Amino acid sequence: MLALYTQCRVDIEYNPDAFIMNLPWWFNLDNIDYKIFTGSSTDLILTQETIAEYNILSNKASQIIQTNEKFSTVLDRIDQSYNNMHEERFSISFLLSWKIIEYYINKIWNELIERQGFNKTRAKKLTINPIYLTVDHKIEMLNLYNIIDEEEYLNFIAFKKKRNNFIHKLYVINKETAQKAFKLSKALINQLLDNQ
Asked: Is the terminal CB of the chain with fewer CB neighbours within 10 Å at N or C?
């Protein structure tokens, strides 16, 4: 995963008006001035401000990857989600995005439990053993403690329901659902990067 970030920085080409490069999934596309589609890849013309933002995020991600193997796996999952979405494998993309959403929920839940200062046995019971607390329970409790707001709560519950319907009732995951889940998982990763 580290190679992805450093490679993207090396591939930047300069022209007097803009930079041109291939961007990974995690880059903020809001500042893009123009897109050119060539085959399956997308070349993007970017402003200097966008390149500066990209380099800051790239440096931060590279530093985190070197020290946090679990986060490297999370970044790999969203990369896979992005690739599957563009290959129109929406169900796979959605499930990979859900894993990131679930990672985020578990991470903030575990941080809450750690702050409470419970003894080791109780902390383990509340963080590791799924018999006591499912993701659904964690979402409810995080919202009750105002750790996640109402919008996050509704998003998490909606995607959990879609995940359960896909797994247990064989519902189809469409492109729109996959894109929304990807967008949320990308936002959560950016939030995690900002908090590192």
From this structure: C
Token couple for 196 = 């590192």
Q: Domain-by-domain residue ranges, the chain?
A: 1-67, 69-196
CA-based torsion, 111, 113, 116, 122: positive or negative: negative
pLDDT in tens, 151-176: 999 999 999 999 999 999 999 999 99
What is the model's pTM? Answer: 0.69
Cα(92)–Cα(50) distance, integer angstroms: 30
Tokens found for residue 39: 């085959």
DSSP state of 41: E
Tokens of 33: 């001035």
DSSP H stretches of helix in the chain: 2-10, 48-67, 69-86, 90-116, 120-127, 135-144, 150-169, 175-194
Helix (H) / strand (E) element for 148: namely none
Q: Rounded distance, CA 42 to CA 24, Å?
A: 10
pLDDT digits (tens, 9 = 90+) for 72-130: 788 778 878 888 888 889 999 999 999 999 999 999 999 999 998 888 888 888 888 77
* Buried residues in 153-167 as b, exposed as e (16+ CB within 10 A): bebbeebbebbeebe
pLDDT for the residue numbered 52 = 65
Say if residue 141's pLDDT is above 50: yes
Q: Euclidean distance between the first and final Cα of the chain, in Å?
A: 18
